[in-house]
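lol ok so funny story. i was supposed to be doing the assay writeup but got distracted and ended up predicting the structure for this chain instead. priorities right. anyway since i did it might as well share w the group, maybe its usefull for someone
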Amino acid sequence: MTSWMLVEDEPDLYEMLLAMTQTMGVNGIAFSTGEEAVDWIEDVDAGMYQGELPVLALLDIRLPGDISGPMVGARLRKSKPLGKVRIILITAYRLSPSEETAFIKEAGADLLLYKPLPGFRELETILKGKRKRRKRTN
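and the output, tada:
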């Protein structure tokens, strides 16, 4: 079964994303803070995680604590086993073009989506990589 990493602090969206991955036949490895996500990445790097590694990471840009979504993405890119994961940033905040570019660069992200996220089928298409170009959703 394919696995995706989810990092989202908003409880309702967190639960919805986990349910969505199950509906898509994907295993969700979910975290509500950047610190939890980075701790898990470090466990993976140390060989302490035995499950299937994710092929995609869906990261909220703004998270509680000191570690943001782009920082999680940057840490993923430094990981030998996780460095090639497809990274998609999500945010409810409207960003300027320069902010978008900076966050994408910091995270090594492949895509940025705005909340509210697209409908289920469109989001499934985007997340499963059938559409590679950067997608802005209003």
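The chain has one domain: 3-127. Residues 131-138 have pLDDT under 50 and may be disordered.
back to the writeup now i swear
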